[in-house]
């Protein structure tokens, strides 16, 4: 018996030793190592994470641990990308969009590079030394937050390596992460709207071996692309209602980003608290250890992807005496390009590993790119470089930290102007006092309208300016890094009724006050166009707001919920009154049958909407018919124009409807099939019906984009669209918030948080978001643990 109990005694002694050792500084014996990281990790319903710590090291530690619990395979895969190691483990030719749906998301599913080019891009274009220098010059809280996050992730990995999900179980590429890795991760987020747009062109310009200039003149490995594409899987709705229109005289906010459902840009619901310093709830983005959209006690904010451009290009005049083509003139002075050698390890078919190297070249303005079909060639006389406002932007986390600490719209505006760190997003906010604000505080190159009108602009299609003269260089504003506009001088609208944005430019943020910028030239064209037709999604948002204002009823939180989930299809409202009489008079019975379905349809994208599938297929063809609108666009009425069907396009519209009906017949979908029967996402074998339209295309405010076109039995698997939803107001003591993360907290099919929130979205049910300590502890699924290292 004694020998049988002996192991238990040893375990008890070990536990006691650990407990006493954790009491730092107690007793008279040898001093114990100090506690490096300490955090309280609580979870409430739907796996929402609440981290509480005494400092930012602990805050990052708790969050890194929690995120690894839910998404370790996706995070590890993302680290392979930003380290430039995809070819080492998966070979050079697979695409960086290595998606294993239902297991974890794709690495960068909007950057169509194969693994080899992706690796070269991150190793050659991203400069770790400059990132380190940038963070060293910034707030120590951010460095501690990032270091703590890496430590928390690493602890989870050490404790659970044998129990990892199937997507990465036993994978050699799942490794501990470092502070440098976190720098790279943040850098990748910053480059979405600039460097990553030109990933293939930058890699194409890199030299693989010593060669003359002529050896560089080759096509980039992607189709022509001049400016950022309009169909990227990023969008959003933002609406802030001020005290003039709310029932309680306080502000309220709807945040409705439309982001990928399966990539490493998934959101993650968090509540982060350092008592007395930072107390913010909302979502982080793709492993970032900070709340990027959310609320605190006094203010709520959200972001939308901006129409602004965050780069330009410059054409260099080269010194022909340098046969390498790497000396250029700047104000008549010859300057030598700098270079970075990127070496990539590549898995071979036989399992061995080989290496290849490329050299990237940089002028003072940016990296050489190669896109001959767009006018960007590298010849003996000239080269074109990408000037990227977000390359080496290390202020992102510091900016979101400052936003989370703001106590009012005015304080938020000051925080944006002080840090100037937002990469490619607008900001819409509401505060307790009832002020609301729209601002594009993203880092926009300081290129004024006067420069666009000067001889500095050489090639408008690629935003190519003269790189040989300092007079054509980016300018500067005081108080922010050189080369960008200060957010204090950016398009801004502060009101007490409402502001909104759905990814169109700043011009229309409230129909009563169109923004044009300072006289005489206005804001830089890089902020986006004014006086132009707006998207249908932008318009339906303002239409619904103006209708509500006209009714005279004061807004409550439920009204914002109803606005989002009304699922009105604005294209149908604009077109069908003119189209249906012609359609119903068609001579063939098949067309008449389709017309009757559209006539009976409720013109919404709800689960029970019969005719929504038919209209989607019809409009996907009809939307491109030229001259389709009877009343053209008017800059004096951008919300209500264009509208109505032009009589001369009736025949083309009928053809589009017949084609749509044939597609439905081929796919086995009845013309009057309800949307819920034929639009769905499947989790762990359970089919979940999905409501919502296709946003900018058909004018649905609640935007859902499916992964594939119409197939047998409908549309299957959501690619991107409504992702995180927050509706936030304020009472006497704090925020009153409801929300939802459509796809759930976890990418692990074994997790209880993998499929729990999607049915809530299907049912249009938002959940209360517990913010105060008492609300958190009162949650029926509350549980808490303590992490100490």
Explain how this protein is built.
This protein has 20 helices and 32 strands. The strands form seven sheets. A ten-stranded mixed beta sheet has the order 20-17-16-8-7-6-5-2-1-32. With 789 residues, it is of the alpha+beta class. The longest helix is centred in the first third of the chain and has 28 residues. β24 and β25 form a beta hairpin. It is 30% helix and 22% strand.
Notable traits:
single chain, alpha+beta, 32 strands, disordered N terminus
Q: What is the overall number of helices?
A: 20
The average pLDDT score comes to 91
Q: Tell me the major beta sheet.
A: 10 strands, mixed
Helix fraction, binned, reads: 25-40%
Lateral strand order in the biggest sheet: 20-17-16-8-7-6-5-2-1-32
What is the secondary structure topology, with strand pairs?
Layout: H1 2-21, E1 38-44, E2 48-52, H2 56-83, H3 86-90, H4 115-124, H5 128-136, H6 140-160, H7 179-190, H8 199-205, E3 235-241, E4 252-260, E5 267-274, E6 278-285, E7 293-295, E8 299-305, E9 311-317, E10 327-330, E11 333-336, E12 338-347, E13 353-362, E14 367-369, E15 382-388, H9 396-405, H10 409-419, E16 425-431, E17 436-439, H11 449-452, E18 457-459, E19 464-466, E20 492-495, E21 498-501, H12 536-551, H13 557-565, H14 570-584, H15 589-600, H16 612-622, E22 629-631, E23 643-645, H17 650-667, H18 675-678, E24 679-683, E25 686-689, E26 704-706, E27 715-716, E28 718-722, E29 724-730, E30 735-741, H19 758-762, E31 767-768, H20 773-778, E32 783-788
Parallel strand pairs: 2-5, 9-19, 24-27
Antiparallel strand pairs: 1-2, 1-32, 3-4, 3-21, 4-28, 4-29, 5-6, 6-7, 7-8, 8-16, 9-15, 10-11, 12-13, 14-15, 16-17, 17-20, 18-19, 22-23, 24-25, 26-28, 29-30, 30-31
């Amino acid at each position: 018996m004694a020998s049988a109990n002996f192991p238990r005694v040893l375990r008890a002694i070990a536990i006691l030793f650990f407990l006493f050792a954790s009491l730092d500084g107690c007793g008279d014996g040898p001093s114990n190592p100090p506690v490096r990281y300490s955090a309280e990790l609580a979870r409430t319903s739907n796996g929402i994470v609440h981290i509480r710590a005494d400092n930012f090291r602990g805050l990052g530690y708790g969050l890194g641990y929690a995120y690894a619990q839910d998404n370790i395979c996706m995070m590890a895969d993302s680290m392979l990308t930003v380290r430039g190691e995809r070819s080492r483990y998966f070979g050079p030719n697979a695409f960086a969009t290595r998606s294993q749906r239902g297991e974890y998301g794709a690495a960068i599913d909007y950057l169509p590079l194969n693994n080899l080019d992706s690796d070269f891009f991150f190793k050659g274009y991203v400069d770790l030394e400059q990132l380190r220098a940038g963070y060293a010059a910034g707030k120590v809280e951010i460095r501690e937050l990032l270091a703590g996050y890496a430590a928390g992730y690493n602890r989870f990995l050490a404790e659970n390596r044998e129990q990892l999900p199937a997507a990465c179980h036993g994978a050699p590429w799942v490794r501990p992460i470092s502070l440098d890795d976190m720098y790279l991760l943040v850098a990748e987020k910053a480059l979405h709207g600039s460097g990553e747009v030109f990933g293939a062109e930058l890699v194409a310009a890199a030299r693989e071996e010593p060669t003359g200039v002529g050896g560089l003149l080759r096509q980039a490995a992607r189709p022509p692309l001049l400016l950022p594409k309009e169909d990227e899987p990023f969008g959003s709705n933002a609406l802030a209602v001020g005290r003039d229109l709310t029932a309680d005289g306080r502000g309220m906010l709807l945040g409705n980003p439309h982001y990928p459902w399966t990539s490493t840009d998934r959101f993650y619901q968090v509540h982060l608290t350092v008592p007395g310093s930072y107390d913010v709830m909302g979502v982080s983005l793709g492993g970032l250890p900070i709340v990027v959209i959310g609320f605190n006690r006094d203010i709520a904010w959200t972001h939308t992807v901006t129409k602004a451009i965050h780069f330009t290009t410059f054409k260099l005049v080269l010194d022909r005496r340098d046969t390498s083509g790497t000396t250029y003139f700047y104000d008549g002075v010859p300057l030598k390009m700098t270079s970075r050698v990127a070496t990539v390890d590549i898995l071979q078919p036989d399992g061995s590993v080989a290496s290849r190297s490329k050299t990237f070249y940089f002028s003072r303005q940016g990296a050489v790119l190669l896109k001959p079909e767009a006018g960007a060639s590298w010849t003996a006389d000239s080269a074109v470089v990408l000037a990227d406002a977000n390359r080496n932007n290390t202020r992102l986390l510091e900016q979101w930290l400052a936003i989370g600490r703001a106590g009012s719209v005015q304080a938020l505006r000051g925080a944006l102007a002080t840090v100037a760190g937002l990469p490619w997003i607008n900001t819409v906010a509401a505060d307790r006092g009832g002020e609301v604000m729209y601002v594009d505080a993203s880092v926009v190159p300081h290129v004024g309208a006067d420069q666009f009108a000067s001889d500095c602009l050489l090639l408008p299609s690629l935003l190519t300016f003269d790189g040989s003269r300092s007079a054509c260089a980016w300018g500067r504003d005081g108080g922010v890094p050189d080369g960008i506009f200060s957010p204090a001088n950016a398009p801004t609208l502060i009101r007490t009724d409402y502001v909104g944005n759905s990814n169109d430019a700043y011009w229309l943020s409230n129909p009563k006050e169109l923004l044009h910028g300072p006289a005489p030239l206005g804001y830089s064209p890089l902020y986006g166009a004014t006086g132009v037709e707006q998207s249908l999604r932008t318009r339906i948002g303002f239409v619904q707001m103006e209708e509500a204002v006209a009714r005279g009823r004061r807004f409550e939180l439920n009204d914002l919920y109803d606005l989002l989930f009304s699922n009105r299809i604005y294209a149908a409202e604009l077109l069908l009154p003119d189209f249906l009489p012609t359609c119903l008079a068609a001579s063939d019975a098949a067309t008449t049958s389709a017309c009757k379905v559209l006539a009976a349809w409720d013109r919404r994208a709800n689960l029970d909407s019969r005719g929504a599938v038919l209209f989607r297929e019809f409009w996907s063809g009809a939307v491109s018919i030229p001259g389709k609108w009877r009343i053209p666009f008017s800059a004096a009425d951008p919300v209500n124009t264009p509208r109505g069907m032009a009589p001369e396009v009736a025949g083309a519209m009928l053809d589009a409807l017949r084609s749509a009906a044939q597609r439905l017949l081929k796919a086995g979908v009845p013309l009057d099939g309800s949307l819920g029967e034929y639009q769905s996402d499947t989790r762990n074998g359970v089919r979940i019906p999905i409501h919502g339209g296709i946003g900018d295309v058909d004018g649905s405010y609640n935007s859902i984009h499916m992964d594939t076109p119409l197939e047998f039995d409908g549309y299957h698997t959501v690619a991107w669209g409504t992702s995180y939803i927050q509706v936030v107001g304020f009472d006497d003591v704090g925020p009153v918030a409801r929300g939802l993360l459509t796809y759930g907290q976890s990418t692990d099919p074994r997790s209880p948080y993998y499929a729990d929130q999607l049915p809530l979205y299907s049912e249009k049910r938002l959940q209360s978001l517990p913010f105060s300590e008492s609300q958190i502890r009162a949650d029926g699924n509350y549980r808490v643990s303590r992490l100490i290292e």
